[in-house]
Amino acid sequence: MSPDASMIAAHAFHGALHLWKQAAVNKKEWTPEVVISGHFNSVEDVKWDPEGEFIISVGSDQTTRLFAPWKRKQETEVTWHEIARPQVHGYDMRCLAMIGRFQFVSGADEKVLRVFRAPKNFIENFSNITGIPMEKLCSHQSSDLPEGATVPALGLSNKAVFEGDMAVQPAEDEETFNTISNQYPEIYFQPLILTEPPPEDHLLQNTLWPEIQKLYGHGYEIFCVACNNSNTVIASACKASKKEHAAIILWSATSWKKLQSLSFHNLTVTQLAFSPNDKFLLAVSRDRNWSLWKKQDSSESGPVFSCCAYTDKNTAVHSRIIWSCDWTPDSKYFITGSRDKKVIIWGQCNLSVTTEGNMLDSIKPCSTVLDAGDSVTAVSIMPVLPSLHYCRYIVAVGLENGKIILYTWKQSGQEPALADWTMCVEMDNSRSHALAVKRLCWRHHAGRAGHNDQNSSEWLQLASCGADHCVKIFNVNRFAL
């Protein structure tokens, strides 16, 4: 209880905080207040929406949570809050990918991927809380969007709730309540118009997103998923100890059909990344190798990818599991980070040899090997080049000990020179994670979410999540790097 007895804070079984405040007029009335919330177990993945206005994270606490900046009329400070919990699942969540703005696909410790789409009630409340006008958010087909979603008493799938479904419940007398079916009503969802972040009880049942598709095809628990930049193809992989289970599956993001199975790796593929120009798909694996897949000319059934480069036991540089990978914004180079503490940038270093046929020999390490000092669990390259006059890339590296370090890398001549890597910032312990960094994700555009400097190129934001249950957002001044 607060010292002046006007507020009560409580901690719930599900790791949530509750806050109630005594009403000023009627002292017997207590109202729920905005309170901080977050995951109560390891956070496995985090992604920005393509417009950079919110982030979605998934965790081993079996939830998918959406955080956005709350814009208050009189306040200048922008604070971030959980404004929706699109998925409350029965399996530990593992990974997610955004498919456009208000749609995502997620994977958990189960064999199916699930696709979710934002309901109308979310878009309206998102507009109220963030101050972004509805016209900017809504596309033409918003009229047929469901209001919200609900989970049947014994189910796992979020079912859409449409306007007609929310009939007024008749007043219950004791007899009707005592029948089992009335104690567990089919529809818990109640649309609310929010102007501030919702309290916990509302997050649990009124902010679910309808599940619109399941993708069946993997034989074991889903481990990673990615979507290309034109939102047409999804790539996913599952846990595997044999080559036949380690295949990457490509799905159409329009028809949801299986397009292709890409077999190469012998063990679990740990991360997938499409190049910014969508011409390549990169995979890194527990088998210490990476594979690069090139998009062929589109056939009737959709794009077909074929393996154009890879490492094997003779050409591999990493000696332990490769945990993470990413692309430079110009699609020229890609980066890999491994448990062996090494970070390496790869590409066609000798660009004078532009033989289309033989890419395999031309993709080599373009950087010196960076020793990050501890197992590398996450890497991400800033999607905006820091300056145009010379090409240097800003790389965020997350370590198993929780540290996040920012480096710059610049290509130097034909042979990698000694000083191609420069450490810019090593986050101090109070800013870093306390346990392993699980994912790093830069905002796709310059500027800070929720601020009016959306187009100013000075600031960039980096989201991170870790095994210490935390999601963090860093403001990075790129001119200071």
Task: Break the fold down into its secondary structure elements and pairings.
Elements: E1 7-11, E2 17-22, E3 30-32, E4 43-48, E5 55-59, E6 63-70, E7 79-88, E8 93-98, E9 103-108, E10 113-117, H1 120-130, H2 134-137, E11 148-150, E12 159-161, H3 174-178, H4 180-183, H5 200-206, E13 211-215, E14 222-227, E15 233-238, E16 248-252, E17 258-262, E18 269-274, E19 280-285, E20 290-295, E21 305-310, E22 322-327, E23 333-338, E24 342-348, E25 363-365, E26 370-371, E27 376-381, E28 392-399, E29 404-410, E30 421-426, E31 437-442, E32 459-466, E33 471-477
Antiparallel strand pairs: 1-2, 2-3, 4-5, 5-6, 6-7, 8-9, 9-10, 10-13, 11-12, 14-15, 15-16, 16-17, 18-19, 19-20, 20-21, 22-23, 23-24, 24-25, 24-26, 27-28, 28-29, 29-30, 31-32, 32-33
Could you characterize what this model shows?
The protein is mainly beta. It contains 5 helices and 33 strands. It has helices spanning 120-130, 134-137, 174-178, 180-183, 200-206; strands at residues 7-11, 17-22, 30-32, 43-48, 55-59, 63-70, 79-88, 93-98, 103-108, 113-117, 148-150, 159-161, 211-215, 222-227, 233-238, 248-252, 258-262, 269-274, 280-285, 290-295, 305-310, 322-327, 333-338, 342-348, 363-365, 370-371, 376-381, 392-399, 404-410, 421-426, 437-442, 459-466, 471-477. The longest helix is centred in the N-terminal third of the chain and has 11 residues, at 120-130. It is globular and about 75 Å long. The model is unreliable at 168-172 (pLDDT under 50).
